[in-house]
Design brief:
Chain A is an alpha+beta fold. Chain A has 20 helices and 23 strands. In chain A, the strands form five sheets. In chain A, strands 5, 6, 7, 8, 9, 10, 11 and 12 form an eight-stranded mixed beta sheet that branches. A six-stranded mixed barrel of chain A has the order 16-17-21-18-20-19. In chain B, about 45% of the residues are buried. Classes of the chains: A alpha+beta, B alpha/beta.
Chain lengths: ~800, ~260
């Protein structure tokens, strides 16, 4: 009764928290909806397969299940036979996917999925795609292509495959994507069997086929049917999805933190202004626990309301986020926004949880209000920094300092995360310390106006000193907004300088030949560049445990000894291998080879963790494509083969980095907008509450001859001043983590990296916050002034 | 008024050598200087004194809102100095009622809900009949569903009295209950308080600076410099001008 009534009656006090929860829940809803919508769907290519039969999975070094271990042709034959014997199975198709890409003149036809576009002719049955013209391929020089390619049956076509550009005759066209070769040709491209697709008889029961296939397999693999078939995804789509998930994940985490932070500071403020009411409740018999539950209950109700509206807003905003992600090219192709129930329920639960968490401190404070405060009718007595707040502020500050130091020493992978945590911690510390800082800072900033005493300056000075808690809660969201803006733009800027510098240093003097429009370098390109590193990567299964890892085939004479492997130290110890030992290595074709550990060397990313002779990899993975080729100074890098590009070291490093930078830039921009938006809500809320609480003061000032315009100027001046103080603190708190990051990057890249700030982004964030906050402050003050001009009913 | 054995031997509130010192060292101010006084059950006592005499501190200590520096306070037979926060909450629920100068009501609740609130905190619900009856006895039956913002100052004070009527506290503490009201409204509120004492036997302690308000009481206790400076039992005869007597006594104290 009391909780609902309080929320209804004091809605203006809860408005800020409501809006903060709304935005937070909207953000999380959008994120989850997009995440849900981008979940893998069954590839159209497999639409006609009743079930997909896959070999067992291998574990990686961390023990998490990764690649499936392809069957060798010999292993596959009995399995295939057993599957064919399953009742109602019309056919078993061995589905193979390898690199194939048509060339038009000297340009490859654009195809993101080119690395897996080549198949055996039987694979056309799994969709199924039907022949539109011509006939099925037979022999090694024939191919059937997508009719959308616009090549008529009977004409010649250059198709780039792992070997290089090869002339084929198009003997037919189908109504779906892909390049379909004869089964014999496909089996030579990819000897190992990774997928068997079961084609059912007409009117067959899917369930019967699945259970039959499972019996036939006898535990040697997995049978996927229905939506589970979506587990099979082209790699490039998986990669995009990963990037998208990381992006929106970071957004959701920051959104969550900011929501808790803003809700906590706003509820603390509104509770602080209700001390007398709480004292009254205590005098009429409310126990401290009841007061705390009341505050938490109010937060829960506000959270629930905010969540309800936030869900709607989030659903409405989902297409917008999808378009942004699409612009950044991190969505799976053809993604549709679909709204399921679970994102909404999860986001609402999070919203209520966040609101209640934010109210925790306020509830504790409220429970400590003594009954006697019912008798004190002045403003909250406990204004400055209490001892508890000092202790909390300083310990959080210490933790932030430790995290900032850790940013410098931690590994590359966790550096940004660490910087983010350090910044969050320091933002909390700054917000806790703000009451102690806002007063002096405000006095300092208004000092020049003191002598030429305009009334506004005097009033603002007085307000900052007398009510530093309120000033602090106004500055807190600004600290967060500006802090994040500075950090994110600074991280992007510093890395933009650091990474290319480090990368360029590593490859200095070399010329790099990269694929251009193709997913990797073909053997034709490698042959054209006989000198320099040309790593041929493959996935292989090492040891009795069949641990899956990247194996690099090298042509570097130092490491490529037949029958031997060179291991990095970490990999060797992870696998429990020592120099001189021999280990079975199973390749993509299902064949096992015993290799001697020739040498164990210090880790070096430029060499690789598990290096064998290039010919060995080629023999067992005929379709593998070669990585970028690093041609040393003094040798000529050739781009005579079409579909390649040549870069000098710096250009290469920059290009390599820019792909990531585009994403981080996009992320930073989105996060800055969100953080600034939050701070505006909080500032407006805070100003509204302050203006409400100062109705009497305004009446006094008015009767003392202040015009409405003067009073609005005071509100504007005060807001501006607090935004400046908050912005200053926001910049300050980000410097240690950024400096830590720069120093960490210097060590990692062995080049001097200094801290870089993105002036434009910071200026935009600060001016944006300033303008919006002042506008909000003036608007709510103006509204309160008009209201208080009418006679009060009491 | 019912008489039991306990009420014969024990006052509703007893102060034994209560001292209250605000601040420490050179800034120490003695607000109450070893006061011992008892307030019998079923009586209406007004506490008066010049500004800074310690009359409000006396009320706050007696009601357990403030801790005395020294001495013992026995309320409804319990030494409240030895109680923990939980017991004090219980004490406030069951044995103490408050009426302050203003802001007695929770803004977001209606008059009826305000009256009902203490019993909710105590975990039991006052029946709607009980609430309506209490509001009716202070003459506000038709305002049950109004929020405080739609009630006049006097009406708000009467709702606070109705609240005390539902909980039936051992002692009702009133701190300047008419301080924010005009004369007419003051008189109404005082009449209600008097009625509570006469009809319900409500022990009442009221701090006031208004001789007219004080004249509604049975006894006026004067405080000066933290000590008891006098005690006047008032004449129940409606003809006698108690207010004038009290005003004269106050004038002597302030001189």
């Amino acid at each position: 009764m009391l909780i609902i009534a309080n929320v209804r009656e004091r809605w203006s006090g809860f408005l800020g928290a409501f809006l903060a929860v709304l935005v937070g829940v909207a953000l999380i809803t959008t994120t989850l909806v997009i995440h849900d919508s981008s979940r893998p769907a069954t590839q159209p290519r497999y639409a006609g397969a009743a079930a997909l039969v896959l070999p067992g999975q291998a574990l990686d070094r961390d023990g998490s299940p990764e690649d499936r271990i392809p069957w060798s042709p010999a292993e596959a034959a009995p399995i295939r036979a057993a599957l064919e014997a399953v009742p109602e199975v019309a056919a078993v198709v061995v589905d193979r996917s390898f690199y194939a890409q048509a060339f038009r003149g000297d340009r490859p036809v654009t195809d993101e999925g080119a690395a897996e576009a080549g198949h055996g002719w039987d694979s056309a049955r799994t969709a199924p795609y039907r022949l539109v013209s011509g006939r099925a391929p037979s022999g090694d020089r024939e191919v059937v292509v997508d009719r959308a390619l616009g090549v008529a049956a009977g004409s010649g076509l250059t198709v780039n495959i792992t070997r290089g550009r090869t002339e084929f005759t198009v003997v037919g066209t189908v109504d779906g994507p892909g390049y379909y070769f004869s089964e014999a040709f496909a089996a030579r491209q990819q000897p190992g069997v990774g997928v068997c697709a079961l084609i059912a008889d007409k009117g067959a029961s899917g369930a019967a086929i699945v259970s039959g296939a499972q019996r036939a397999l006898g535990g040697k693999g997995t049978v996927l049917s229905g939506d589970a078939r979506s587990a099979l995804q082209p790699q490039y789509i998986d990669h995009k999805r990963d990037l998208g998930v990381q992006l929106i994940g970071a957004m959701a985490v920051l959104g969550l933190f900011t929501t808790v932070f803003v809700v906590a500071s706003m509820l603390a403020l509104s509770t602080g202004m209700r001390r007398r009411e709480i004292g009254l409740l205590r005098t009429i018999g409310a126990a401290p626990g009841q007061i705390r539950r009341m505050i938490l209950g109010e937060a829960a109700v506000v959270g629930l309301l905010g969540s309800a509206v936030g869900c709607l807003a989030g659903v409405a905003a989902a297409p917008l986020l999808r378009d942004i992600l699409k612009g950044l090219d991190v969505t799976p192709p053809g993604m549709e926004v679909t709204v399921a129930a679970w994102p909404l329920l999860t986001a609402s639960a999070v919203g209520v949880g966040v609101s209640v968490t934010g109210a925790w401190a306020a509830g504790r404070k409220a429970a400590k209000v003594a009954p006697i405060e019912a008798l004190l009718d002045s403003r909250p007595a406990n204004n400055g920094m209490g001892r508890g707040r000092w202790i909390a502020a300083l310990s959080v500050l210490g933790l932030g300092a430790v995290l900032a130091l850790a940013t410098a020493t931690t590994g590359a992978d966790s550096r940004i995360t660490m910087a983010l945590f350090a910044t969050m911690t320091l933002i909390v510390a700054a917000a806790l310390l703000a009451p102690a800082l806002a007063g002096p800072a405000g006095r300092l900033l208004t000092a020049p106006f003191r002598k030429r005493g305009s009334a506004a300056a005097v009033l603002i000075r007085g307000e900052l000193t007398a009510n530093s808690r309120r000033a602090a809660s106004l500055a807190a969201p600004v600290i967060a907004a500006v802090g994040f803006a500075v950090l994110l733009s600074g991280v992007v800027e510093t890395m933009r300088v650091a990474y290319p510098a480090g990368e360029a240093l590593k490859v200095a003097g070399q010329t790099i030949v990269t694929p251009d429009g193709t997913p990797g370098n073909t053997d034709e390109v490698v042959a054209a560049n006989p000198v320099g590193k040309a790593a041929l990567p493959t996935r292989a299964f090492v040891g009795e445990q069949r641990t899956v890892l990247d194996v690099l085939g090298t042509r570097d004479a130092r490491w490529s000894r037949p029958g031997e492997a060179v291991l990095g130290r970490r990999t060797a110890s992870g696998l429990g291998l020592k120099q001189g030992q021999s280990v079975p290595v199973r390749f993509a074709d299902g064949a096992s080879v015993r290799l001697k550990v020739g040498r164990v060397l210090p880790d070096d990313p430029a060499r690789g963790d598990f290096v064998v002779a290039r010919d060995l990899v080629r023999a067992h993975d005929p379709a593998a494509l070669t990585d970028d080729i690093f041609v040393p100074a003094g040798s000529r890098a050739s781009v005579a083969v079409p579909g390649t590009a040549r870069h000098d070291a710096l250009r290469y490093a920059l290009d390599d980095y820019n792909t990531d930078a585009r994403l981080t830039d996009g992320l930073a921009a989105m996060l800055i907008v969100i953080a600034v938006g939050y701070s505006v809500i909080a500032v407006a809320n805070s100003m509204a509450m302050a203006a409400h609480g100062r109705r009497r003061d305004y009446a006094v000032m008015k009767s003392a001859g202040g015009t409405v315009r003067q009073l609005l100027a005071v509100a504007a001046g005060e807001t501006a001043l607090l935004v400046v103080v908050g912005a200053g603190l926001g910049v300050l708190v980000t410097l240690p983590p950024l400096a830590g990051m720069a120093s960490g990057l210097s060590q990692a890249t062995s080049s001097a990296v200094s801290l870089h700030l993105n002036g434009a982004a910071i200026t935009t964030a600060i001016t944006g916050t300033l303008a919006a906050a002042v506008l909000a402050g003036v608007m709510v003050t103006g509204k309160t002034l008009r209201k208080s001009a009418q006679p009060s009913r009491r | 008024m019912t008489t039991t054995t306990r009420t014969l031997v024990q006052d509703a509130v007893e102060l034994h050598g209560v001292r209250k010192v605000h601040g420490t060292g050179d800034h120490a101010v003695t607000a109450l200087d070893s006061i011992s006084v008892g307030f019998p059950r079923g009586t209406f006592t007004a506490i008066m004194g010049p500004s800074g005499s310690g009359k409000s501190t006396l009320l706050q200590c007696a009601a357990g809102l403030d801790h005395p520096t020294d001495g013992r306070i026995v309320l409804a037979g319990v030494d409240i100095g030895r109680q923990n926060e939980k017991q004090r909450t219980e004490l406030r629920r069951k044995h103490i009622g408050f009426v302050f100068q203003a802001f007695n009501l929770v803004e977001s609740l209606t008059a009826a809900q305000n009256v009902e609130l203490p019993s909710r905190f105590a975990g039991r619900r006052a029946g709607p009949g009980q609430v309506a009856e209490a509001l009716a006895s202070v003459g506000l039956a038709d305002r049950a569903n109004h929020r405080p913002s739609r009630l006049s100052g006097g009406q708000q004070q009467r709702v606070a009295l109705a609240r005390a009527l539902v909980t039936r506290p051992d002692v009702l503490f009133a701190d300047e209950p008419t301080g924010a009201l005009d004369t007419g409204t003051s008189r109404q509120v005082l009449r209600m308080m008097r009625m509570l004492v006469d009809q319900e036997g409500q022990t009442t302690l009221m701090v006031t600076h208004d001789p007219v308000a004080a004249s509604a009481a049975d006894v006026v206790v004067f405080i000066k410099d933290g000590r008891i400076a006098g005690r006047i039992p008032l004449d129940k005869d409606p003809q006698s001008d108690n207010a004038a007597v009290i005003a004269a006594h106050m004038a002597r104290l302030e001189a």
